[in-house]
Amino acid sequence: MSNKKLKWGILGCAGIAKRAVIPGLHLSEWNEAAAIASRDGDKAKRTAEELNIGKAYGSYEELLADDSIDVVYIPLPNHLHKEWTIRAAEAGKHILCEKPLALTAKEAEEMAEAAAKAGVLLSEAFMYRYHPRYDMIRDVIAGGEIGEIRGIRSAFTFNNAANKGNVRYRKEWGGGSIYDVGCYPITAARLLLGNEPEAVTVQAFFSEEHDGVDMMAAGLLEFEGNVSLQFDCGMWAAFRNPLEVLGTDGVIEVPSAFVTGAPGSANFFVSARGERREVEVPDVNQYTLQADHLSQAIVNGTPLKYEPSDAVLNMKIIDACLQSARERVRITLLREEKERFDYGIH
């Protein structure tokens, strides 16, 4: 790979950008957090000074007009993902967009098409998928140590309900726990099983105190071979983010499936044939790895692990989950909805 660092521009001063993604860029050999934009110019300047970013802009348009910026990171509220992804693509920038990619599968398709038309790469920011432990977990499964998979259980919950002004609690802005954290167990099951669900059923608690968004949801995703994902997600519950893969002969337990940080926090456990062992995983920054993967695809032309088509498929499932929760019905995913799309740049 070239020694030239790709210059990144960040649209907005979101907490995830300041807390995780920008520090991850600072650790990268291949990427540089070069500019940040906010509709509040003073806020952009303060954030740039705080996080050692060279340029600050008082509008997103100014950042997109900067010819030195190679990649744009979009951590804006969900309802703005489509607009600014398309505008970034039209400006010739490669894009890392926060999850969920869009509000609907149709929006995700439009974003994928815009990136393809502009000849730029578009990646959805599920940082956990770039951590080496998921390859390690897949190797354990493929090696047969736990036998045939019988089911997956996972959860992602936290309690921020008192902060009623948070963007997560704006219905029209794409608020709600399924969009915000339920998407993690869904992507993890798809990743580990290697196929798409055939049906979904979700029950949710919609809170009128929080603009009617789903504050808690529990769901069942049915995959082929009579295997299912049981998941729950919430923004008004104690923090947890475990994942468990149950096999005929054993089980894989991941205590902190999506969040890492402290040494050893990425480790997981395998129980089989009466023994339980801890699998030690490298302590790495998954946000750095996420950025490095995209930069290598841009500079060296290596394939993305997860093309925009994957995000479209994930949004189809989220669409079905939300429909099931609102209508209290089981939603069957049509076969044509499960077929792979191809909006990637090769």
UniProtKB/TrEMBL annotation:
<dbReference type="InterPro" id="IPR000683">
    <property type="entry name" value="Gfo/Idh/MocA-like_OxRdtase_N"/>
</dbReference>
<dbReference type="Pfam" id="PF01408">
    <property type="entry name" value="GFO_IDH_MocA"/>
</dbReference>
<dbReference type="GO" id="GO:0000166">
    <property type="term" value="F:nucleotide binding"/>
</dbReference>
<keyword id="KW-0560">Oxidoreductase</keyword>
<dbReference type="InterPro" id="IPR055170">
    <property type="entry name" value="GFO_IDH_MocA-like_dom"/>
</dbReference>
<dbReference type="GO" id="GO:0016491">
    <property type="term" value="F:oxidoreductase activity"/>
</dbReference>
<comment type="similarity">
    <text>Belongs to the Gfo/Idh/MocA family.</text>
</comment>
<dbReference type="Pfam" id="PF22725">
    <property type="entry name" value="GFO_IDH_MocA_C3"/>
</dbReference>
<feature type="domain" description="Gfo/Idh/MocA-like oxidoreductase N-terminal">
    <location>
        <begin position="6"/>
        <end position="125"/>
    </location>
</feature>
<feature type="domain" description="GFO/IDH/MocA-like oxidoreductase">
    <location>
        <begin position="136"/>
        <end position="253"/>
    </location>
</feature>
<dbReference type="InterPro" id="IPR036291">
    <property type="entry name" value="NAD(P)-bd_dom_sf"/>
</dbReference>
<dbReference type="InterPro" id="IPR050984">
    <property type="entry name" value="Gfo/Idh/MocA_domain"/>
</dbReference>
<protein>
    <submittedName>
        <fullName>Gfo/Idh/MocA family oxidoreductase</fullName>
    </submittedName>
</protein>
